[in-house]
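Please study the protein below:
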Amino acid sequence: MSEHDSEVDRWEQSAVDFVTAYQRIPAERRTESIDGGWSARQVLEHLLEDEILFSTRMRTAIADPGGPILPFDAERYQTNLSYAQVPDLTLLDGHVALRSINVGLLRALPNEGWQQTVMHPETGDQSVEQISTMFGDHIADHLNDLQNAGLDGARR
């Protein structure tokens, strides 16, 4: 049992909740802008990219403590990757699968492993705990955006 179990449970559940909310949105509405910003589809693409980034940073901190990581420009990824060719279900499945693997690795990590760090060129040392908290809670932020957009006809 880890001191981080409740957080990891919450992070795991947020991915499930996001998929449920996304699937409630009719397919023809998934590309509509949310409050002048990204569409639900773009949010899904962004969350997959974030999960990939999280995976890389977390693994570097665990397997190669002190190793360098690269900064991330979400807009550049959104602009330069051709996710339009990838079906929604594939993106959803990929995101949930990767989140499940990441959660499994975090559950297996001893408490002291959460303090191992990587070196970010702009912000300095980042621990597994910091990285996990930032990316773990990120889905919930976008889930709220999706739920509040009312694309499923249930504006809150």
About this structure: The chain is about 60% helix and 5% strand.
